[in-house]
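Quick one, probably user error.
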């Protein structure tokens, strides 16, 4: 099997797995309990928070653990702006953000969606105009899950602040893949999810800059300094920190490899005479390759590749029940004859050049048929 759907999820890192094991079997106590049996769990959470904070240039107190990227996004969007404030976002956000916005709209809140250009970059000329209409929350994803495009985050954060907005970014596809320094980028809130960077599923975090007031989204006990209730998922928190640290340490080498593999894939398809468009910008998440093939059906390509032992996606994993053209492909205006034939090949750190050659061979065979 060739796994080329790393934007949907990644394989759990072996060191992360090993680091998690003691907290599933040996140190299973509730970290909130005052007895010494819980001391190891509490210490492990503290250390994990420090590691994660260090990886994104934050302070440990600014990291709040959540159950996933979706929860982090829901929290930031639904509670990041006051009841009378505006929410401004882009048209290509993940559904965790878009559907949170829809919920707010149903409650009478005003949400503005800024369009993107053909590479998926937010229309900077529209930003000032949209932000001038009030104050509130401006949320733009760091990088897009379907096409990999990275947004000019610092520029967007600065414009948000200039107009009195808080700036949130859904960095679920970016954390652990590209360098992020929340201070330097002037980010107020950032969502992340462990399973996108070789950590376990069902754990994420929200970075909340010191001074940003955000009510809790999950009410209950006083865990996470009273900011996010619920018994901590100690093993997963430890696994997330271990995976993130390792990915950050190996980032340059991994990304060089992914750029080489991407180049090899594109060259292989071009040399075979395949008619395709690569979606997104040159400045994208390494390994995230959205391809639209002329006069093909993405769904058919996916299933044929599956029969040949290759896992890819037609867009984002969350869009797969939907065979229509995704909101992202519509927003970047992929020509119709190509849009229907879109697949996302997302290579990860474990993919090899032999696997890429096999993907090329299989794709060429299917498309020629
Ligand atoms: N945001 C983006 C950009 C994503 O790609 C995803 C998952 O695909 C999410 C949010 C949701 O993250 P999770 O799967 O941890 O809920």
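Nope, works fine. Designed sequence:
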């Amino acid at each position: 099997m060739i796994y080329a759907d790393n934007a949907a999820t990644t394989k759990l890192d072996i060191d992360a797995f090993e680091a998690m094991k003691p907290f599933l079997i040996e140190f299973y106590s509730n970290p909130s309990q005052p007895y010494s049996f819980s001391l190891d769990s509490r210490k492990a959470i503290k250390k994990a928070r420090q590691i994660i904070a260090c990886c994104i240039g934050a302070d440990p107190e600014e990291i709040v653990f959540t159950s996933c990227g979706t929860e982090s996004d829901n929290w930031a969007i639904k509670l990041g702006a006051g009841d009378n404030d505006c929410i401004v976002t882009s048209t290509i956000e993940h559904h965790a953000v878009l559907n949170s916005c829809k919920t707010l709209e149903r409650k009478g809140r005003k949400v503005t969606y800024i369009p993107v250009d053909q590479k998926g970059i937010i229309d900077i000329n529209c930003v000032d105009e949209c932000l001038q209409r009030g104050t509130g929350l401006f949320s733009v994803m760091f990088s897009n899950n379907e096409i990999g495009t990275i947004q000019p985050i610092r520029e967007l954060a600065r414009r948000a602040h200039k107009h009195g907005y808080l700036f949130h970014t859904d960095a679920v596809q970016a954390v652990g893949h590209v360098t992020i320094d929340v201070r330097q980028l002037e980010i107020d809130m950032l969502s992340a999810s462990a399973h996108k960077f070789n950590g376990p599923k069902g754990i994420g975090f929200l970075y909340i800059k010191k001074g940003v007031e955000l009510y809790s989204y999950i009410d209950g006990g006083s865990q996470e300094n009273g900011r996010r209730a619920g018994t901590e998922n100690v093993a997963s928190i430890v696994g997330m920190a271990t995976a993130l640290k390792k990915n950050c340490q190996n980032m340059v080498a991994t990304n060089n490899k992914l750029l080489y593999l991407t180049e090899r894939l594109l060259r292989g398809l071009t040399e075979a005479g395949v008619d395709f468009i690569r979606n997104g910008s040159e400045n994208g998440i390494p390994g995230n390759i959205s391809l639209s093939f002329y006069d093909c059906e993405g769904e058919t390509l996916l299933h044929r590749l599956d029969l040949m032992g290759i896992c890819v996606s037609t867009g984002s994993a969350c869009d797969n029940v939907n065979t229509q053209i995704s909101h992202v492909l519509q927003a970047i205006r992929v020509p119709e004859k190509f849009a229907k034939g879109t697949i996302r090949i997302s290579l990860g750190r474990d993919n090899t050049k032999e696997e890429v050659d096999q993907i090329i061979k299989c794709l060429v065979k299917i498309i020629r048929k």
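Residues 274 and 364 are 7 Å apart (CA to CA).
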